[in-house]
Sequence to fold (269 residues):
Amino acid sequence: MGSTHRKKFLTRRRTVVGGLGAGLLVAGALTTTSLMSTASAAEWPTPSGDRKVSETQEISGVVDGKMTRYIGEGDLGGGDQGEGKDPIFELADGATLKNVVLGSPAADGIHCMGSCTLENVWWEDVGEDAASFKGGEGSTYEVMGGGARKADDKVLQFNGGGTLKVSGFAVEDFGKLVRSCGNCSEQTDRHVELKDIEVKAPGKALVGVNENYGDTARLSGIRILGDEDRKIEPCVRYQGNDSGDEPEETGKGPDGKTCLYKEGDISYE
Fold:
């Protein structure tokens, strides 16, 4: 399901985070967390502590959360999946956010306004979306490690241009892992790469892309748990639009042009 993203935002309260401040620490060693295992499901981390925030945290440079759990309150305290919420974090172009847990409620998660890196970021209960990527053409977004669960609809919403790379990620109880916006007012080609992903049912689809805009989705090392009937679609193709209408589904599965993967790229356990 594509979502219209011509949102009307409320006046935002923001906290700028760059260097030390707002309970986050710059740099520091990556917290060691078991992301994937060939024998069992991903291990979810135990947060080092909780921090409640009522305004969007603006991130620039490299920021290390030291596995703090962030919980929205006030204007960020809604737990439903309605459109138009502000994010817990907003990342400037080139920013990196690492070692963070988003608890519940998490509002609209994380917004990347340009190229960004999310490293070892975990969403315990996805609100509207876990993360939205909004940079221009040529932007590169990397999601490395981490995981998300309890997403009624999308986990990663791809609204901008460029390439979204997701690796070493765990997802469970979700709608779609990645969706290229099906009806944004400004459309472009978008490219998705999913590598070494652990998927735990229930779920609907790993990726949805718009074939009419030249989107591509490359999948490899996908491991699906608990989906005996294979209901989770690896890749779904759509006819996107810029009018705000619901996009039409046009096909599923590998086609050598838009959905790029082979049978051996996906395993079921």
Q: What stands out?
A: The chain is about 0% helix and 45% strand. Residues 1-11, 19-39 have pLDDT under 50 and may be disordered. The first strand starts at residue 14 and ends at 17. The chain has one domain: 44-268.
